[in-house]
Design a protein that fits this description.
The chain is mostly helical and about 120 residues long. The chain has 7 helices and 2 strands; from the N terminus they run αααααααββ. The chain is about 60% helix and about 5% strand.
């Protein structure tokens, strides 16, 4: 516990621990976050849902598709982002969603039906 407390004391007064962690996570996944633009609309929705910790079954239910289809989309997401696991996809998704909107080339709005509206800046 002392190690955590000593790390917290080194974080500047203008930067919170949460902010420092956000910067660390985002910088760790820069290359992968840059590849998010290559995802299709449906892949992007599933990518964002992975970031919330949703299971394949929950994603399938929400999007009215089969779990097998979800697995196929996740396979494509992993390939396009150059990552190896759904855990990594979830981490990249969280980092991407938490990064500053100005860093995104495309703004994304997740609609209740699971469709994505991409708005070019």
């Amino acid at each position: 516990m002392e190690n955590v407390n000593s790390q917290r004391s080194h974080v500047g007064s203008d930067l919170t621990v949460s902010g420092a962690l956000d910067m660390l996570v985002a910088s760790s996944w820069e290359d992968e976050m840059a590849r998010v633009a290559a995802l299709s609309g449906r892949e992007l929705v599933i990518f964002l849902l992975l970031g919330t910790g949703a299971s394949n079954r929950a994603i399938a239910s929400r999007l009215s598709i089969t779990e097998r289809t979800v697995k196929a989309h996740i396979g494509q997401i992993l390939a396009k982002l150059g990552i190896e696991s759904r855990l990594q996809a979830g981490l990249v998704s969280t980092a991407w969603a938490r990064s500053a909107p100005s860093d995104h080339r495309t703004k994304v709005q997740l609609r209740s039906g699971g469709f994505v509206k991409r708005i070019q800046p």
